[in-house]
What we know:
About 75% of the residues lie in helices and about 0% in strands. It has one domain.
Amino acid sequence: MLYQIISLLLEVVVGVVGGASxxxxxxxxxxxPMSVRSGNPLGRFxxxxxxxxxxxxxxxxxxxxxxxxxxLVAAFLLQLAHFAILWxxxxxxxxxxxxxxxxxxxxxxxxxxxxxxxxxxxxxLSWLPTxxxxxxxxxxxxxxxxxxxxxxxxxxxxxxxxxxxLLLVLQVASIVLDSLQAGAxxxx
Length: 188
């Protein structure tokens, strides 16, 4: 029971802060303004959640082109801490080698889950008649992934099915990731 409670709490905290770190990485990669002056409330939220871990890492990890390595490493370190704590709570049985592997797969799973949520929010906001700052940000986050699908898939009866196709692709990626994780841990 204690393991389940700790696991749930860690999953929520690491999911929110690690997800915000990945969102920070992605928003900076896409050059979406995130400052207070930009009027982007999502950017302010991301900064508030992640500055404590990203800014110290940024002092030692320079960006590589448009890739904010500090945000990526922050998300990975959070996943690593998550699985290391669970490993310790479970009695530190088995090899510690699995912890970094689980952290890597957790990071990839978090990216897929985050994009899934972004696509769903984007689709729901697209149905609302009045645009908002958040709908504009969500469009900038999701539309780069929808563009290739829209080039292939025409509108069907005036309806854009590209978000549905992207959700299917993300679910397939999640299934493949689960299979790769089982293979990687089974081989170790």
